[in-house]
Amino acid sequence: MKVIGLAGWSGAGKTTLLARVIPHLLGQGLRVSVIKHAHHSFDVDVPGKDSWVHRQSGAAEVLVSSGRRWALMHELRGAPEPRLPELLKRMSPVDLVIVEGFKSEPHRKIEVHRAANGKPMLFPDDPGIVGIATDAELKTTLPVAHLDDIPAIAAMMQKFALSIEDVLARSATES
Predict the structure, then answer these.
(1) What is the DSSP string of 135-170?
(2) Of 57, 94, 122, 152, which residue is most buried, by most CB within 10 angstroms?
(3) Closest listed residue to residue 147, CA positions, set 14, 10, 58
(4) Domain count, the chain
């Protein structure tokens, strides 16, 4: 199992890019999973439904299962947010795990940058950034692909992805 990240400011188009890259990777025969970091409280179930009621009642975890999918929700209830290594250990084996967000973690990342967003680049200050997907003209020694060049971005992700063992080892030295 290999791991690569997408990092960038809100509004850069990380989720939109992922929605285009994942089908491309699947078309190459890869199994892909995603870990997404959210900066705020969020719900994956609907208020009033059973799983929501169970969480609101204080359950530490609620697993919802059907004939089509299952989802596990774990409530922190004041405990610290888990770091990326802990979350990676919970993932089922696939060919590639794409991490959206987790900018401060030491895994390798492709920066997603949109010029119209008006935000500064992350790469000068983040040694984990190994490539850039952007619609801007850049002068850098890092590999750069246009946001619309899905094959090039997918290739960059595959080239720079690290094994999960290497990511966990990097994280252990950063702790």
Answers:
(1) SS----SS-EEETT-HHHHHHHHHHH-EEHHHHHHH
(2) 122
(3) 14
(4) 1
pTM for the full predicted model:
0.91
Looking up residue 98, the CATH number of its domain turns out to be: 3.40.50.300
**Which of 14-23, 99-108, 155-164 is predicted with the least confidence, judged by mean pLDDT?**
99-108
- Phi-psi region at 17: left, alpha or beta (left = phi > 0; alpha = psi -120 to 50): alpha
Are the C-beta atoms of 133 and 110 separated by less than 8 Å? yes
CB atoms within 10 A of CB 154: 21
Structural domain contains residue 58: no
The answer to the question of residue 20 being in a domain is yes
Residues above pLDDT 70, as percent of the chain = 99
Domain that holds residue 139: 2-42+82-174
User: Distance between CA atoms of 88 and 15, rounded to whole angstroms?
Assistant: 19
- Round to whole Å and give the CA distance between 164 and 81: 20
